[in-house]
Amino acid sequence: MTGFLLRRMLSLGLSLAVASALIFAVVELIPGDPASYMLGTGAQPDTLAALREQMGLNQPFPLRYLQWIGGILSGDFGQSLTYKTPVAAMILDRMAVSLPLAMLSLVLAVALAGPIGLFAARWRGRAPDTAVMATTQIGIALPNFWFAMLLVLIFAVRLRLLPAGGFPGWAHPVAALKALILPAVALALPQAAILARVLRSALIEVMDQDYIRTARAKGLSTSQTLIRHGLRNAMIPVLTVMGMQFSFLLAGAIIIENVFYLPGLGRLIFQAITQRDLIVVQSAVLVMVAVVILVTFLVDLAYAAVDPRLRRA
Questions:
Q1: 86 by DSSP, 3-state: which?
Q2: CATH number of the domain that 307 lies in?
Q3: Which cell locations does it reside in (predicted)?
Q4: N- or C-end of the chain: fewer Cβ atoms within 10 A?
């Protein structure tokens, strides 16, 4: 188990190092001069030169990368040139919205997908299974932003049960949770449909194994066999998809954040790109990639917890 952890931690460190270099290089290759963009075409040459000096654009590329990564390792993400505030504080404020939203969405997706996948596997090849698969296909094809606007019309405009947008902050936890319910449901629906189909397929594959037939021969019902023996052995592909879904929910919720006017990390990156605030773009994207890599690492640990053969490999 120790060797397994060491290999995964080494892979985690190498992935972060490569990701940081790629993020810095890609952002630096964006066409145009950020200083000219921020000051406008009528800026004076001396003002433009001063801003370029302040942004460090006159220094060589490797030196700028080392200064950036050194600052991040020491906890200094720099200062936003647009908002004149520390980037680390901006990212923490936005993560306080995006991270709970992603977690709530994943919990809802799992809560929906688990019973649906078990039900479809229990009745595989029959009418209930066909109905469930057709419904999940609709859930996958349904655009989440359209579903989000439909939720706003029903629960915010008509019924007035939940807010239509905005985020009051965690100083008011009940109001904050209410503000995240509709966007979380809009994000969870297609993910639940995908996860239910994956769980169904994994359970059907497991149910054809010899030990399942032995369990049935001992007198267990189909439902008992699915839950006691099939579910755990079908968790490897399910955990993989769950890890990918959490990464998507954290990094790919920009449209939903804009629909509900949520001050999340994805919206911050979008705004920073339009304003050519490179330090914010680089740092926010790196944090997002680091979270995704960390989730992948945790999924690997979950693999080892579910399947002892991976710990012995």
A1: strand
A2: 1.10.3720.10
A3: Cell membrane
A4: C
